[in-house]
Amino acid sequence: MNSSYLVKTVMRNLFILALAYVLFFNLHEYLLEQRNTVLSFSLFKIYTFHFVASAVVYFLIELLATIVPSQAGFAYLGTIFIKVGIFVLLFQDLMFSEVEFIMAEKLALVIPMFLFLFIEVFFISRLLNTK
Known about the structure:
By secondary structure, this protein is mainly α. The chain has one domain. It is built from five helices and no strands.
């Protein structure tokens, strides 16, 4: 695979990821406003973390797949655990607070994680199928 194709693929996928970030975040905010729901934390920070983490994970796996294609799938599994660990460290006050979350807050923590995980899996599976 030549480097220009690799750059185009990475840029296209990062653009799709950024577009999903903007669309999903704004849709989520809109739905919360429509229901007059106020969260006790910043939804923007949650979405931003997942966007940045997914972009870094995708870029690293894409880079690793060019060097050691047979290990890219295993590396991706490892990055999932690292990403969850970093999330817990960065948002530990939120994760371990004594305050009981309402359902909208619980969903606001889980929905971005699954949205970005789905996009990651889609990109990584396409990558692994081409290697």
